[in-house]
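Can anyone check this?
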Amino acid sequence: MLESTAQRRGVSVRLQEKPRPVLSVRGLVIEDVTLDQPEIIVDHLSFDVAAGSVLGIVGESGSGKTLTMLAVMGLLPHNLSVTGGEIWLEDQNLLTLSATELRSIMGNRMTMIFQDPMTSLNPVICVGKQIGEIIQIHNPAVSRSEVRDRVIDLLLLVGIPDPGARYRHFAHELSGGMRQRAMIAMAVANSPTLLIADEPTTALDVTIQAQVLEVLAAVRERTGASMVLVTHDLGLVAETADDVGVMYGGRMMEYADVETLFAHPSHPYTVGLFKSLPRADSELTELYSIAGQPPAVGAYPSGCVFHPRCGVCRGRAICVDQEPEREDLGGGHESACHFVAEVTSWAEAPIAGRGLEEIEPS
């Protein structure tokens, strides 16, 4: 497994260095433009992915994580459009490129591992040929034999046994773990600068999850690619990511390096996610859960989008009426909460197993 940036260099050194981002998203707005009254799905989202680093993006289903990555890849469904902001891949604003220019980047400098490989792989084309197509599209001068050799090398790299035989297999002939490895091989076929992994281990058992993570680490070690990891798994983020963005209701609630976020969560939503995790070092009679339900996509409440479920808010008018800006807490740690100063004491209260509405702010 790759070491985190903080482990390799020390937190103080890491915070002083500002490498040029491989991916920079600034003020991204995604709207459903097919409605009589367009609805905002992702609202002024900003984040960076530094060279050689891993950004973990976490949050409940419907928070806008995957839609954001689809926007980066230029793969939004027809009813959604980017209506504001910028998406920079190194020195290129992807939103200003033509379709032809964008195709030259996708699958080459920037690639995506989708959540379900069974629905992403073509069922009537053997896996080896599908991976080979990615190479041929971006390297038309390469011969068929060279492409085949490259594909077999990739299958070997991701840990698929007997790659010469597996080259001819179809998706249904591979196990779930092998299909995900094949997707990883396809994603890194052209040594991309940026790798986006959307829930790459969701449908796999724990043992296979660990193997897939080892494959991703080995591939990144070999290619030097930066990665965005979209996941619900906070343990996976803690083990893999350098920086973490916490999304809710299409907005970034908190953003920090992984050590800071886990040691000092500074948004009530982040605290709620952490409190929901079972712990081996304590005994609980009831597992805590965040009160209420996430809002429907696009049907977000006014003010702070999290306020209906927030134990710190307690119905205060500023939370209900005014959207909080992301406050810089130092060292790149940002939180979008009107009452950041109250979050730490609230987080330390014994709230596990109790409804949020019962917790008084400090």
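Reply from J.R.: I decoded it. The longest helix spans residues 206-223.
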